[in-house]
Write a structure and sequence with these properties.
471 residues, alpha/beta, Rossmann fold, 3 domains, seven-stranded mixed sheet, four-stranded parallel sheet, 18 helices, 44% helix
């Protein structure tokens, strides 16, 4: 009988993962740091056309691209003459469970069924849980979703509790946990006990599923406007959304700038019991965006397929109050009521469009469903109950965990650029530290340059500053 203690289960994590995802990650390892990323993606075994077909079987994809004409008019009123790019939005709420996460879940669940698994498991408190549960219901598989729901006082955010309701409505079993380190242990334990498939957010199947989103938005933009988008704005959390969308955009042979956007939650620790309920966004924020960019392999698979620094041309942050403002504006100006978390990238696009000439096109690549706990008003009420001041004024004065400032005027909404160079150097340092190496091979060097999208000389200079040799 297996040792089911924390130590015993964690010591078998690689073995459990191998059985639960049907991939032997050791086959892709190279050198002391590198692995064959493109081969791993290719080994999903599905082309873009095949993924499109898989997704059509369960009603996923082919979502509309909507031009936000009234939002664009407002941007132009606030911009200097001749500026204010056209804003389009990909309405991903039209997917079966209401978000782009259906694309991600569709391939994983299809693959699980194809391999003969009886069920799927995913550890997520976001829209992905609902997407996996929905796809599993359609494919006739059992489903377990493991959620981090509560602080130690058993208080749970309305947004997460809404996700629980939604998962259960699709017939999934939901395992609810309080914030802390037990999530990964429980997840592994369930995988081993049930023999179900690991429908990880970070597997190559999950990332490949999003490629159709990037491909579609480019094709639709060409059909509508006769040209490619100049920029695609993507909400950035664990890196999968950026990676999958960017890969699809490039497969459509578009050179559109890829811009990541996260809600700034600087200073709040994601694993802190105190901070857990002091943030109004459970995903799409810097608490995921920065750590997963600088160390993607912290995920629940040995090698994450989500590698955002390969694709990001720019990364910006916006504030919580700004997203709530734009969520209201989207409803009132365009007649589209969508969840605030999905409007993170729209808020960034609103600010960025004012810096672009009128003949440019900026595409926001997602919306999400709203209602019940996901609506911004219960989220603001919950924030007040947890001691957060709700104010009106200049969003630059917002302090995560202390207040939320709704802009007193839309001209105050900004996209604040993150120093990507600093993140790339941090990623290289993390590779050296986590693999505990004092020298790297030429294969490692090539991998690092590809993984942060720089030339080899850049990586050599960073390694030299750390006294690391290149063999």
């Amino acid at each position: 009988m297996n040792d089911m203690s924390y130590k015993g289960v964690m010591s078998r994590k690689n073995e459990i993962m191998k059985k639960a995802i049907g991939l032997d990650y050791n086959n892709f390892e190279r050198g002391s740091i590198s692995f064959d990323y493109e081969r791993m993606m290719k080994d999903t075994g599905y082309s873009l056309d095949e993924i499109t077909k898989i997704q059509k079987e369960t009603g996923v994809g082919s979502t509309p691209l909507i031009e936000l004409k009234n939002m664009t008019k407002l941007v132009r009123k606030l911009s200097k003459l001749g500026y204010g790019a056209r804003i389009f939005i990909k309405d991903e709420q039209c997917n079966p469970s209401g978000s782009f996460k259906d694309r991600r879940a569709s391939v994983s669940v299809y693959h699980a069924k194809k391999l003969g698994f009886k069920g799927v498991i995913s550890a997520t408190s976001g829209n992905y849980g609902a997407a996996v549960a929905s796809q599993a219901a359609m494919r006739g598989l059992k489903c377990i979703i493991v959620q981090e729901c509560y602080d130690s006082k058993k208080a749970g955010q309305p947004e997460i509790l809404e996700k629980q309701r939604k998962c259960e409505s699709y017939g999934a079993e939901v395992v609810q946990l309080s914030v802390g380190p037990e999530l990964f242990y429980i997840f592994l334990k369930l995988l081993e006990e049930t023999g179900y498939f690991n429908a990880s957010l970070y597997s190559p199947f999950g990332i490949a599923g999003i490629e159709t989103l990037g491909y579609e938005l480019v094709e639709q933009c060409r059909e509508r406007t006769g040209k490619d988008p100049d920029a695609v704005v993507v909400t950035h959390a664990g890196g999968g959304n950026v990676t999958g969308t960017a890969r699809g955009v490039r497969k459509a042979k578009s050179k559109a700038e890829i811009i990541g956007a996260s809600v700034d939650l600087k200073g709040l620790h994601m694993a802190s019991d105190r901070d857990f309920n002091r943030k109004s966004f459970t995903t799409g924020h810097t608490g995921f965006g920065i750590p997963f960019a600088t160390w993607p392999d912290r995920s629940d698979v040995p090698r994450s397929a989500a590698r955002p620094l390969r694709y990001l041309d720019k990364y910006v942050t916006i504030h919580q109050g700004e997203v709530f403002y734009i969520t209201e504006a989207l409803s009132q100006l365009e007649g589209l009521e969508r969840g605030p978390a999905g409007n993170t990238s729209l808020t960034a696009a609103f600010a960025l469009a004012s810096e672009m000439p009128e003949d440019r096109i900026i595409v926001v690549q997602e919306t999400e469903y709203t209602g019940a706990g996901k609506h911004h008003l219960p989220q603001l009420s919950f924030a007040k109950e947890n001691g957060i001041d709700i104010l009106t004024g200049n969003p630059d004065d917002e302090v995560p965990g202390a207040n939320i400032i709704i802009p007193s005027h839309p001209s105050l909404i900004k996209a604040r650029e993150v120093d990507l160079d600093r993140l790339k150097k941090s990623y290289i340092k993390n590779c050296i530290d986590n693999y505990n190496v004092r020298s790297v091979t030429k294969e490692d060097l090539k991998f690092l340059s590809e993984d942060v999208n720089v030339d080899v000389s850049y990586v050599i200079n960073v390694l030299k500053s750390m006294d690391i040799n290149v063999l």
